[in-house]
C-alpha cells in the first residue's frame, strides 16, 4: 500500500509540473512504476501519451496557458480556500512548518509551499504521513481543482481523481457538495475562477 501511494503521488507530482525536457524523459519511468499496480496507469495514460507525442514547445505553451496564466486550474492548494486574503499568509506558514518538521530540508524551488506538485513530492519522497495529512486537510481544494479540470476537459482531471481516491471518503458529486465540504455558505459563480469573497471564508475559531 505504501509503495502504491508513493508511486501515485510522485507520478502525479511530475505530471502536474512544467513539462521540461527532464520531466518528459521520465515518462517511461512513470509508466513502468504505475504498471506495478493494475488499473492505476489508466488515470495517467492520456497525460503520459501527450507528453511523449506532443512537440515540447507546444505542450509547454499549453501548460503555461492552462496552469500559469489563469486561476481556473490553480495548483496552489490554499488559493481555493483562502484566495488572496491576509489569512493565506498564516496558512502558507503552516505548510512551511510541516516541511520543517521532517528530517530532510525541502527545497521549494521558489514556489509557494502549498504548490500541489511539491506537496505530492513531499508525501512520496519525504514523509508520507505528513504529506497525506496536508492532502486530506485540503481535500476540498483538490476536489475544486478536479471539477475545474473536468469543466475544461483536461486529462489532468483523471490524475486529480487518482489522488483523491487515495484519501478517506468518496469524492463529492458536484461543486456545491465540495463547498459544503469546505464549510462555506452558498457557492457563487466565481468559485474556482477568482479569489473568494472574504465574507464567505470560515472565521478562525468559529
Brief digest:
The chain is mainly alpha-helical. Helices cover about 60% and strands about 0% of the residues. α8 runs antiparallel to α9.
Q: How does this structure look, described?
A:
With 206 residues, the chain is mostly helical. It has one domain. The chain is 58% helix and 0% strand. It has twelve helices and no strands. It has helices spanning 2-15, 21-25, 27-34, 45-53, 56-68, 77-82, 87-100, 116-125, 128-137, 139-151, 156-165, 175-182. It is globular, with a radius of gyration of 17 Å.
Give the helix/strand layout.
Layout: H1 2-15, H2 21-25, H3 27-34, H4 45-53, H5 56-68, H6 77-82, H7 87-100, H8 116-125, H9 128-137, H10 139-151, H11 156-165, H12 175-182
Helix pairs in contact: 1-8, 1-11, 8-9, 10-11, 10-12
GO biological process, one term: chaperone-mediated protein complex assembly
Protein name: Nitrate reductase molybdenum cofactor assembly chaperone
GO molecular function: metallochaperone activity; unfolded protein binding
The amount of beta strand, in percent, is: under 5%
Q: What's the helix count?
A: 12
Range of helix content: 55-70%
Shape: globular
**Unreliable segments (pLDDT under 50, ≥5 consecutive)?**
185-206
GO biological process, one term: chaperone-mediated protein complex assembly
Organism: Pseudarthrobacter psychrotolerans
GO molecular function: metallochaperone activity; unfolded protein binding
Keywords: Nitrate assimilation
